[in-house]
From TrEMBL:
It comes from the Bacteria. It comes from Streptomyces bluensis. Residues 18-94 form the HTH rpiR-type domain. InterPro entries: Homeodomain-like_sf (IPR009057), HTH_RpiR (IPR000281), RpiR-like (IPR047640), RpiR-like_SIS (IPR035472), SIS_dom (IPR001347), SIS_dom_sf (IPR046348), WH-like_DNA-bd_sf (IPR036388). PROSITE patterns: HTH_RPIR, SIS. The keyword Iron-sulfur does not apply. Pfam families: HTH_6 (PF01418), SIS (PF01380). PANTHER family: GLUCOKINASE (PTHR30514), HTH-TYPE TRANSCRIPTIONAL REGULATOR HEXR-RELATED (PTHR30514:SF1). Keywords: DNA-binding, Transcription, Transcription regulation. This is MurR/RpiR family transcriptional regulator.
Amino acid sequence: MSSHVKKTFGGGAPPAPAALAAKVRTLAPSMTRSMQRVAEAVAGDPAGCAALTVTGLAELTGTSEATVVRTARLLGYPGYRDLRLALAGLAAQQQSGRAPAVTADIAVDDPLADVVAKLAYDEQQTLADTAAALDTVQLGAAVTALAGARRVDVYGVGASGLVAQDLSQKLLRIGLIAHAHSDPHLAVTNAVQLAAKDVAIAITHSGSTGDVIEPLRVAFEHGATTIAVTGRPDGPVSQYADHVLTTSTARESELRPAAMSSRTSQLLVVDCLFVGVAQRTYETAAPALSASYEALAHRHRP
């Protein structure tokens, strides 16, 4: 059994006001119903809730003071006072620059111009939420592991499998040995070969995809450094991850399934990993990237 110690989600400085809404969207599915009521209240009306005492917010949401305090702590704040300060800051930001009045819900009869506007706005919000909630300490540790890796395996299925392919191709072009696996059997048989100098990355929006968790567990138990890119940092995948990179959990509708919003946020995290590794390994990455461009140049000439 590996001696790795799994990092728990949370800790560090409280999230900035702008990150509060993203944190609520990410953690709400794992909360109790009473805690969800508190989280939804503070995210929906930060100005109103900032004016309330802990007793007032408990009465407003039909919960208890203890539930309000537990919710504040789960969201990353030491106590309710810190959450109130963040709410006041968020309310001030919204008053100075309110987001456009565009809904992410796309109706069957929406004109294409409206579809473009709604998707563009929602994608921007997904990216902003992911950037605000992304733990740069965890990101830096993941970059360090990748920069020194002997070999990198990336696991993902469905839409997450496409993101896994994107990351592996990027890493290959800067000289790393990287492979994406969407076949669960092949993923596990490759994970068995990993060791302490290797890195395994699981990409799963739900955090509970068995075909992705299984090879990550095997890699973890064989001593590889493991990374989870997930929208559910408290999901099963995280128990086998040394580093957890959280993606935004955007609101979905019938015509905009999870695969669309999750892919957008996953690609941002993947690009952050790639650029970070390229920075750390610039002396070898730059020549490798130039060589790959040169090797393909003739295919792009008229």
